[in-house]
Hints:
Blueprint: H1 16-48, H2 56-80, H3 82-101, H4 106-134, H5 138-169, H6 174-177, H7 179-193, H8 208-231, H9 236-258, H10 266-270, H11 272-302, H12 307-313, H13 315-333, H14 339-356, H15 365-390, H16 400-437, H17 444-480
Helix pairs in contact: 1-2, 1-4, 1-5, 1-7, 2-3, 2-4, 2-8, 2-16, 3-4, 3-7, 4-16, 5-12, 5-13, 5-15, 8-9, 8-16, 11-15, 11-16, 11-17, 13-15, 14-15, 14-17, 16-17
Amino acid sequence: MPKVPDHTVTHADPGRWKALIFIALAQLMVVLDATIVNIALPSAQQDLGISDGNRQWVITAYALAFGGLLLFGGRIADLWGRKRTFVVGLIGFAAASALGGAATGEAMMLGARALQGAFGALLAPAALSLLAVTFTDGKERAKAFGIYGAIAGGGGAVGLILGGFLTEYLNWRWTFFVNIPFAIVAAVGAYLVIREPAGGRNRSTLDIPGVILSTLGLVSLVYGFTRAESEGWSDAGTIGLFVGSAVLLLAFVLTEAKVKSPLLPLRVLTDRNRGGVYLSLGLAVISMFGLFLFLTYYLQVVKGYSPVMTGFAFLPMIAGMIIGSTQIGTRLMTRVPPRMLMAPGFLTAGVGMLLLTQLEIGTSYAGLILPAQLLLGLGMGTAFMPAMSLATLGVDPRDAGVASAMVNTSQQVGGAIGTALLNTIAASATTAYLTDNAAGATTPAGQKLLQLQGMVEGYTAAIWWAVGILVVSAVIAFTLINTGKPDMGVVAGSGEGADDEVKVPVIAH
């Protein structure tokens, strides 16, 4: 029997579980940053003299840089090597966080947030692709992605708790400074522990037209939805951004089909399983991000919770995500096809969202909000885990970075769309309710009650849309994702060019 060449044999990295700690730590830091600044924003705005019109840019600058540069970051990870990109991303993120924490004015703050987004775009795809190439055994891979999926899903809610604590008991600047120890520990640990497998780099020349078109197209799309929230959907600038985004992204697809070394090889997208993951996950994130915002405002403004109490009120969702991801998802992933986890997961989250359409001013937290959050967490945790693993299913190791970047891109763009779309729906419903009922509120107390009731009406109207979006996510996952249950062993040759019938969530070299 001929000897099998070394490059087709996958050896388990003895330090893989230590590596997971540092990869997970970095992912937690990036996800935390998406929400931790939200709670600190009012204090930072007052200290730095940021106008009401410009305060959204503290959030938007991060989202634009992160969402716009993710594909470029994924390609850099494939080109430089994932470990090197990961460490550079961590160091840069720490430096940008230090700059944000030390900000003395509006320009310095916005610049720091944009830098955080840019280094996050290097870091996030490198983290996921490192995980994909480090864990090649089916059972171990399920556990590793279970932990990663729980962090990716629950990190935003953890950010709300941490942001509340830091803002209330220390200072808003600590919502930036807290990233520095995270980043240093993860960078040192990664440098010492992570061993990137050989043969996984893509040393092709960089597709500069693809970088420019994808970055401008994604920035236009994210900014279009952000602008729609403040200026309205019929605003000429908003429409112009959407049209520009469509033209740029179409030009990007046409370019990628022709160039020799594309930034995003279309084979990464055209695989029905990966395409199903990107689409269903992006839609599910639309509903989740909008919900975070509505529940935060409902608990603080309507129910009168403090920032710390609000953060703790999200704990059932975090617990649900951890259980769904590490217990349900991990245990069943090697036994059932992924769509049998993702579709029921999204539907379970949809049931939790459906409960929240019953919100009223006097709604009991324990009676309605807590069980709704548990269902949301369980459902999303169960769905996130196989989705993260499937994102790099059967992809050539040289494309692992850009395939991982597509997951983050779908989440980031989904989050921006979710916040803007659901906020606009809520605002319209609130305005309509106030207009219809203004005549009945003749006293100051009555007017205040009307305002609160209008807010709740707006939230529930938007949450109905979120329910529908989760149902669509479930249908897409069930229809498009058709791979069978994964092989539990180490399988070589599952990259591009392998037998199409071998459908295993294993990347071999």
